[in-house]
Amino acid sequence: MNTDRSLLQGPVWLRLFVLGSLVLILLFAAGSALNSIGAIVSAALVPLLVSLLLTALLMPLQILLNHRLRLNRHLAAGLTLVLSTGAIGAVLYLAGAQLVNGIADLRDSVAEQLDSVRDWLLSSSLPITEQTIDGAIDRAQEWLSDSRGTLVEGAVNVGVSTASFLFGTFLALLATFFFLAQGDKIWAWCITALPAASRRRTYEASRRAWVTLSTYVKTQVVVSGIDAIGIALGAWILGLPFVIPLLIITFVLCVIPVVGAFISGALAVLIALTFEGLGSALIMLAIVLVVQQLEGDVLSPLLMGKAVKIHPVVVLFAIAAGGYAFGFLGALFVVPLIATANTGYKYLNGRDPFPVLDEGGSALTDRPSKLVGDIVDVQLPARVGDATPVWLIAARNASEEGKTEPSPGHLAIAEAELDLIERDRVEAERIAEARVEAERIEARKIIADEVEGDEVKADQIEADEIQADVVKVNEVDAEVVEPDEPGGAHEQTGTPGSRSERRD
What is the reported pLDDT for 39? Predict the structure, then answer.
């Protein structure tokens, strides 16, 4: 009995177990490889992306120094970086000084609020005694004492991260300098490296993508600044500490749409609750809501206009995915990347978001509202369910014509366009099926020819073998029939008698 049995012939559960194990191993290996590659690539990719955002933000100052003041492009780029980094450094210095001076106040305020919470818990009807609270405090102190090594290790990691951050900052500033000074030449080289047939469309798509990116960055910075100033002003009026650090943190967080504003507002309310109590916290909450409503409903639509159009649902899920995968940087980069890619995709698919660029407009100096031209926003249908694909196509056509609502003619054209697309799809499927069938017929013909050729070849081989046998027989006969006397008639006739006698 043969006991050597293949896994493929084993039970179903065994095959599934082996297959699942292999899939898990491959996924783990692929994840580890991608993680390693990502760590290597991020060291260069993150500074590159940061430099692109900085270039989009600082380009107006570069244009002012180079176009208006006629400074050399490299000198203008250097001055732009010096002025911007100097302003950021001054703000950070003020924030750090205020943090250092307010540490003692923060410690006293936190201790006071903890005592208030302790008194409230003891005076409440909750089953909590003073011994329970003291035990919790003792356990917390023990945990801090036991975790001293972990905290030291974390501090070392923070030092390593700080070194990496400083190196990445240097790379980003260096790349920003060259993008400001020679960005047009660098991108022109990239375009000429493409195949000739795709250079023009790629260049035009990139111009439109740059308009979207620069508009998004500048608008988000302005909106973040207004949010930060409004919330910091409210904190100053309430007499809260750390106004400048709160301003900086709010500004940085609000660069991330939606989520950043929520986190910064919650932080401001928490500071008010910690230092001034519930009444000040409620006032701070009202200030935050007013500022963020002004930003979301008035400033953002007014500044971004039609240059950046992304549905809020897409923004939320994109930030969630980017933040989960890459942390703060992922949440920071994902929205501008999606907006930029969306603009390029629209242009490559025949829907130009900035048609004035083809009429001599500039992607660097002209306002987005001017580059949009006559395109207007189309209002949604009043009834839910009426926003069908036909309506969407008609709305796009009406928007390009400067109309706020698609007409029956637009709807008819859109319906015909969809029908044409469906007919083209059916025709394409029919052609593909015919091509596949033709390939099958050709394959069968080739196989038949090969089989026929093999049969002919086999017949030829068999005929050659028969011919070889005949030749051998003739040779044997020639050796057997050897005449004793040249020209003798009896030997030449080769009668059976003479052959038998000679054999004997």
Answer: 63
